Task: structure prediction
Amino acid sequence: MLKAENVVKSYNGSEVLKGVSLEVQNGEFVVILGASGSGKSTLLSVLSGLERADSGNVEYNGESLSQMNDKQLTEFRKREVGFIFQQYYLLSHMTVESNVRMGADLAGNKNFREIISSVGLGDKLKSKPSQLSGGEQQRVCIARALAKNPNILFLDEPTGALDEKTGREVLDYISRLQSERKFTMIMVTHNSNIADMAQTVIKMNSGNIVETYKNTERKNAYAIGW
Ligand SMILES: Nc1ncnc2c1ncn2[C@@H]1O[C@H](COP(=O)(O)OP(=O)(O)O)[C@@H](O)[C@H]1O
Ligand SMILES: [Mg+2]
Result:
């Protein structure tokens, strides 16, 4: 379980997270929904150990991130966490295969070609990112993140740069892989339609969680509105 208790985080004296508490079960798919500026990305950074809370506590399977030193926190991220961002951050001079292999190397995982195939890019191993569409590039990012077998995958507006058709495709790949591999998935978005795919939805407004609910019925990537 990933647990946050009364997390506060400020930038330049202004509180961006105002005492956030939440619990995410292992294997759960959670969407964090909120308008731009509500603190979603900041919350992801703190939950994933990229940044530290000013006060409050973040705990993963009973281990407190707040009490880890920098080296332990880096180890934690390496061992447990995968990231997918709106921007692709692929290495442009390297092939699809090499970009994904880098993610796999971090965990000593040799099955990186299998994960490239699982996002439908088995025939693009030798392509460079610039030769791919936006959706294909984001699928490389999914493969790169999953190649290290993370226990928690954090996604920050993963379809924010994609058109509708491509966005649906990418969400479809992500959600299929999550139900197959059962990693915990925490996805941030301002698109309320995407929340219909999640098991649990956490709504944020101005640095606070204002609502948490479970979907009794979940929709797939092609059934949600856009
Ligand atoms: N590194 C930072 N330095 C200063 N201000 C920041 C930083 N990151 C975020 N903020 C501010 O915190 C607020 C929340 O930002 P963010 O967490 O990115 O929200 P969201 O992801 O919901 O759009 C915004 O007002 C933003 O300008
Ligand atoms: Mg953001």
User: Anything to note?
Assistant: Residues 155 and 187 are 5 Å apart (CA to CA).
